[in-house]
Design goal:
Layout: H1 5-14, E1 22-25, H2 28-38, E2 43-47, E3 60-63, H3 66-76, E4 80-81, E5 91-92, E6 96-100, E7 104-115, E8 120-126, H4 133-139, E9 145-149, H5 157-166, H6 174-190, E10 193-204, E11 209-211, E12 214-218, H7 227-230, H8 240-248, E13 251-254, E14 259-263, H9 266-278, E15 285-288, H10 295-306, E16 313-320, H11 325-338, E17 345-351, H12 354-362, E18 368-371, H13 374-391, H14 393-399
Parallel strand pairs: 14-16, 16-17, 17-18
Antiparallel strand pairs: 1-6, 2-3, 2-6, 4-5, 7-8, 7-10, 8-9, 10-11, 10-12, 13-15
The structure holds adenosine-5'-diphosphate and magnesium ion.
Adenosine-5'-diphosphate is lined by residues 20, 44, 46, 52-55, 60, 99, 101-102, 104, 107, 130, 199-200, 212-213.
């Protein structure tokens, strides 16, 4: 799960990371009140969307009067900001962060990631902040500093100081910078983050060290024990299909193809996607209905898969161990009836109660294409896709 910059800054500042004063605003008038409350005479107006690269896309504006604050806020709110990370459709700006603008002398990069190979939290830092880490790594890989943290003892003061000296910081800045690095590490560890990025960590003209941008990503599987993090979730920033799925406890990832997949087990779901590709088409989604899927859950899975208008065929692939094929079959029949499904359905069932499951499907009177094996199912789904595409509008009429 990702959160907004202003939320990440609030969390980090609770762990001692120094940040400039800032307040979130939802309207241009609010933006002006915030600027007044923050004080000073220069403010940055920052679009809050789940994406980096906002600066280059015009989503970060420096302002020097209340009039400019109002104008920048009015211009940004309601705009779709297209950054390098959002894709061409961009992301709608619904919140702004109003922050005191600070005079920057130097921009550094500090990031924390989970290094799965080392099984450790790892800090990556470079004196060349401001740009995205991918660009830094491509342009000056030699500048990257890397520190691996021993989980039994946590990040040590000397490690943080060494890193800060490595970043070229001067002695008077070391205490603040160390506080920022250690604070970010503790926030990562104590909040079950999978990524914390401060880019830039700025040295100001008057020698202070401040986090000017912050990004945090959290482990979805740990959210149950971090209610204060979970409540920061902004569903409007997520793929609506994935947000819906998480409400039903379904594991769904939206893709761009035309064959919708309803599968039990993540491994089988991956294999099904591979087989569809091998048969010459593209999957519309990854979906794992999980073990013990009730007919209601299967119906929810159908609703979810069919909410994607690109889906022209649904492929149901169930290997029932904990599951029961008859339940799945009941779910398929119920969904096909209740939801008036007009696209072809290919079903491959195997495992517990398979005969009963097949009987339910064949006696339902619905046009469900049975398949024997995974390869057979993928071939039939792709063939059905061909028919459907060839028939075009005709098949939609026939369905009515
Ligand atoms: P993004 O990474 O999405 O482009 P940032 O928050 O990093 O957004 O902002 C882009 C740039 O804007 C920063 O690299 C920094 O130069 C400048 N900036 C951001 N916040 C401030 C601030 N409070 N004061 C001065 N400049 C800032
Ligand atoms: Mg940034």
């Amino acid at each position: 799960m990702d959160i907004h910059e202003y939320q990440a800054k609030e969390l980090l500042s609770n762990f001692g990371v120094p940040i400039p004063r800032g307040i979130v605003a939802y309207t241009p008038d609010q933006a002006v009140y915030c600027a007044r409350e923050i004080g000073g005479n220069r403010w940055v107006i920052k679009a809050q969307i789940h994406s980096g690269g906002r600066g280059q896309a015009g989503g970060v504006r420096i302002t020097t009067s209340e009039h400019e604050v109002h104008a920048a806020a009015a211009d940004l709110l309601g705009r779709r900001l297209v950054t390098k990370q959002t894709g061409p459709q961009g992301k709608l700006v619904q919140r702004l962060y109003i922050e005191a603008a600070v005079p920057i002398a130097k921009e550094l990069y500090v990031g924390f990631v989970l290094d799965r190979r080392a099984e450790r939290i790892c800090v990556v830092a470079t004196p060349e902040g401001g740009m995205e880490i991918e660009e830094i790594a491509a342009q000056s890989p030699g500048s990257l500093l890397r520190v691996v943290i021993e989980p039994a003892v946590g990040m040590q003061g000397f490690q943080a100081r060494e890193l800060c000296f490595g970043l070229g910081l001067e002695a008077p800045q070391i205490p603040d910078a160390t506080r920022a690095v250690i604070g970010a590490y503790r926030a990562f560890r104590d909040l079950d983050a999978t990524m914390v990025e401060i880019n830039p960590l700025a040295v100001t003209a008057d020698g202070r060290v401040l986090a000017l941008d912050a990004k945090m990503t959290f482990d979805d599987n740990a959210l149950f024990r971090r209610p204060n993090v979970r409540e920061l979730r902004d569903y409007t920033e997520e793929d609506p299909r994935e947000a819906d799925a998480s409400k039903f406890g379904l594991n769904y990832v939206g893709l761009d193809g035309q064959i919708g997949c309803i599968v039990n087990g993540a491994g089988l779901a991956m294999a099904t996607m591979d087989m569809i590709k091998l048969a010459g088409a593209e999957p519309a989604n990854f979906l794992d209905v999980g073990g013990g899927a009730s007919p209601e859950r299967v119906a929810a899975a159908f609703r979810l898969v069919l909410s994607d208008p690109r889906v022209k065929v649904v492929l149901v692939n169930i290997f029932a161990g904990i599951n029961r094929c008859d339940w799945i079959a009941q779910g398929v029949v119920q969904a096909a009836r209740d939801q008036h499904i007009s696209v072809p359905i290919v079903a491959r069932l195997a495992g517990t109660n398979v005969d009963e499951g097949r009987r339910i499907l064949s006696e339902s009177g619905l046009h469900i294409i049975p398949a024997e094996s995974l390869a057979d199912a993928a071939r039939k789904a792709v063939a059905a896709l061909g028919d459907d595409v060839r028939a075009g509008a005709g098949s939609a009429q026939a369905a009515r």
